[in-house]
Amino acid sequence: MPSSQQRTGVTIAVVSAIVLLFATVALPWFDAQGLTVDVPGVGEQDLGLGPLVFSGVEVPAGSLWETTSFLDILVAICALGTIVLGALALRGPELTERRATIVAVLGIVALVLVVYVAILPPNNVELSASDLGLPGDGTAAEAEVTADVELGRELGLFIGVLAALGMTIGGGMAARREPASDAGVAPSRRPGE
Q1: Mean pLDDT over all residues of the chain?
Q2: How buried is residue 25: exposed, middle or buried, by Cβ count under 10 Å (0-12/13-18/19+)?
Q3: pLDDT tens, residue by residue, 64-95
Q4: Among 81, 154, 169, 173, which one has the highest count of C-beta atoms within 10 angstroms of its own C-beta?
């Protein structure tokens, strides 16, 4: 039977994973604050907050699910894995050491991914001069247009970091082994007592 500390740890990890999954899909993590474009021959142009869509090319803004193409899936897998393993552990008669360790590792992986996204937000916008309504003749110079999106961090990012931290702490509590009980063992006496 899992100890009280292990049950508490699993519960914290599962609740945190549910919050992380919700934040990944539904809460805004980033908001486009500005867009700067460097066009060969024209120079750098600050397009400010203008429209977030240029001829069908979307500037990243929104939830983690909307702004990344791979990390969001990894974060969701970590959260879902924690939810499934935690539910099995809470329903079953025992929490195996392997399951508890996997829950802890999933929490650590989720935390690393979310902190990575917080430090290096997505900036994967590919625009051409024609996407921006600039004159272009289809030459190689047009292909050299670079766009830099300035992203602001939103509430969902901070909730995601806290939820991933909760998964890590809860997983660590679940994986922690309690020392063997000394019940029934007489206390040792010091020499000379």
Answers
A1: 76
A2: middle
A3: 887 777 888 999 999 999 999 988 888 876 66
A4: 173
Residue 136 structure tokens: 């272009």
Tens digit of each residue's pLDDT (9 = 90 or more) over 108-142: 999 999 999 888 877 655 555 565 565 555 554 45
Residues 6 or more apart whose CB falls under 8 angstroms from that of 179 comprise none
Model-wide pTM > 0.90: no
Residue carrying structure tokens 């240029």: 54
Dist CA 112 CA 177 (whole Å): 24
What letter represents residue 154's amino acid?
A: E
Reading the block at residue 133, the tokens are 């309504």
Q: Is 170:12 a contact under the CB 8 Å cutoff?
A: yes
Q: Looking at residue 182, what DSSP letter applies?
A: -
User: What gap in Å lies between CA 167 and CA 77, rounded to an integer?
Assistant: 13
In angstroms, the CA 13 to CA 171 distance is: 6
Amino acid at 96: T
Q: Where on the phi/psi map is residue 191: left (φ > 0), alpha (ψ -120 to 50), or beta? A: beta
The tokens for 159 are 């909730």
